[in-house]
Each structure stands twice: as structure tokens, then as C-alpha cells.
Specification:
extended, Ferritin, 3 strands, mainly alpha, three-stranded mixed sheet
């Protein structure tokens, strides 16, 4: 059950309209790592948890907050678009290369489609997609995805912070950055707690017996590049994070197998020894038909 209170979690009022910046801000609203994504992701994870408890309360709590962030951004975008000149403004071509690349163009659909309002799209006008949502039913996998989403989102908000001098916009973004800081740490803490309690551990899924995988290659770093510095990394030697093995480093693969037998129909016609000439024979047969035609 949802209730809506007509107030925002934090101030969402710009100093002045700026339709160009409104288009940029659409990215953290309707982009892959925007607020719509995390709001829907956390809620679907909660809906998919069949056992009540602290983890389900966690995702519902933060998911509800993220819907509030959707509202804050939509409200800010609407105000940035309202009364703003449609088209390229006097100061639209800024030193920002992202703006210069599009000559400071605004999102025309802000005016045409949404009536000077926000839309569930990214900064390029691509619609938000449900495929952005990760809700696998595995808490370790989902919480790791959540931490990544918060990191990517905070990265984008921090970049947007430096793309405006508007105090009102920066003030709201500073609040969102602080909440993203909390959310990153929150998911990482939840991941640690899952492991400490034995609810889930690495490798995910931990209920699949490793004895049924080819354990001889489970912890090998296979270098398929001509770069050699990867051998210096923590992932190339020493104990593995899951505590189940030791990393080893290898230049190239440690396994190989013959290429599978060819099953193309031509092999039955010409025989495997003649396969290299198959295309030539097919081309010749086609030409003979053309000549007779």
C-alpha cells in the first residue's frame, strides 16, 4: 500500500530556469543508473523476497526513499524547463564538452510531449526500461548489483554537480550525493552481514556444490593479453576472497580441446577432405545454372 505526502524529502528549487541543464538532469532520473531504476529495483527485490525480516525491510525502506528522489528530480526538471527559452539559449554553448557536442540543444519533447515537465527518459531521450532492474532472488547477487548502481549513480550526480553554477540545483544534488554515500555503505554492510551470518556467501550461488564444477580451473587467472602486469595483482596469487582456494597465474589457457567435427550438409556431399573447396564448387555450380538459363 502506498501513500503520497505532498512534500519533498529535500529542497528541489533552482535559482533560474535552464532547459539545457534539465536535459542533462534527465540522465539521473530515467537513465540506466537513475533514480527510477534503483526505486524499481529495490521494490522488486522486496516483492520477490518470500521471507519477512530485516533484509526485506531494508529494501522496502530504501526503495520507498528512492521514489522520493524520483519526485525531487522530476520536480526540479519541471522548474528548470518552465519559462525557459526553447532552443539554444544565449549561454548554451558552454565550455562543457558534453554541451558543446550538441551545441547546447534542449530536449524539445520537454515542451512538445510533457508540457514543460520531466519524462521517464535518459538525457538522450531513450525511454526508461524495465530491463535495467536486477531482482534475481539471490540476496548477495542483488545487493552487489545495488552497490554498483549506487556507485554509478553517485558518479553521474557528481559530474552533473560540476556542470552547473545554479545554487539551488547544487544544493539538491549535494543532498542526493550524501544519500548515495549512505546507500553505497549500506549495501556493502548488508553484503558483509550476509556472509557473517552464513545466509549467502561466495561464490554465488553458494548452494551450488563446487564439487560439480571443474575445480582445477576455479581459481586460475588466465592471461589472454600480451600485458604482463596483471600478474602483480591480488587476483593472481594468494588466498581467494571466498576462502575456498588459492589464486594461480597462467600465461594463456591451461586447457584445450580439438575443434568439433563439421556437421555442415556439404560434408556429406563432398566429404571432409574436400571442404576447403566447397565454396568454389558451389560458386561453379551456380555459374553453370546461370549459363544454362
Amino acid at each position: 500500500m502506498f501513500f503520497h505526502r505532498q512534500e519533498v524529502q529535500y529542497k528541489a528549487t533552482p535559482d533560474k530556469p535552464d532547459a539545457v541543464y534539465a536535459r542533462k538532469l534527465q540522465e539521473v532520473l530515467g537513465g540506466q543508473y537513475g533514480e527510477i531504476t534503483v526505486a524499481m529495483q529495490y521494490m522488486f527485490q522486496g516483492w520477490n523476497m518470500h521471507i519477512p525480516g530485516k533484509y526485506r525491510d531494508l529494501v522496502f525502506g530504501i526503495g520507498s526513499e528512492e521514489f522520493g528522489h524520483v519526485e525531487m528530480l522530476a520536480t526540479m526538471i519541471a522548474q528548470l524547463v518552465e519559462k525557459s527559452p526553447i532552443g539554444v539559449t544565449e549561454d548554451a554553448v558552454q565550455s562543457d564538452p558534453a554541451v558543446a557536442a550538441v551545441i547546447g540543444g534542449t530536449d524539445l519533447q520537454h515542451a512538445i510531449v510533457s508540457g514543460a515537465g520531466a519524462r521517464p527518459v535518459d538525457s538522450m531521450g531513450n525511454p526508461w526500461q524495465g530491463s535495467y532492474v536486477t531482482a534475481s532472488g539471490n540476496l548477495m547477487a542483488d545487493f552487489t548489483s545495488n552497490a554498483n548502481a549506487e556507485m554509478q549513480g553517485r558518479l553521474q550526480v557528481s559530474r552533473l554537480y560540476h556542470m552547473t553554477d545554479d545554487h539551488g540545483v547544487r544544493d539538491m544534488l549535494a543532498f542526493l550525493l550524501a544519500r548515495d554515500t549512505m546507500h553505497q555503505n549500506q549495501w556493502l554492510a548488508a553484503i558483509e552481514e550476509l556472509r557473517e551470518e552464513g545466509t549467502e556467501k561466495l561464490p554465488v550461488p553458494s548452494n551450488f556444490p563446487q564439487s560439480q564444477e571443474h575445480t582445477e580451473v576455479s581459481y586460475q587467472y588466465l592471461n589472454f593479453s600480451d600485458g604482463q602486469r596483471a600478474a602483480e595483482g591480488r587476483w593472481a596469487s594468494g588466498p581467494t576472497p571466498d576462502g575456498n582456494g588459492e589464486f594461480t597465474y597462467h600465461d594463456g589457457p591451461t586447457t584445450s580441446a580439438p575443434y568439433p567435427s563439421i556437421t555442415h550438409p556439404d560434408s556429406r556431399i563432398y566429404g571432409t577432405t574436400e571442404l576447403p573447396n566447397t565454396m568454389e564448387k558451389m560458386a561453379g555450380a551456380t555459374q553453370d545454372k546461370l549459363n544454362k538459363g
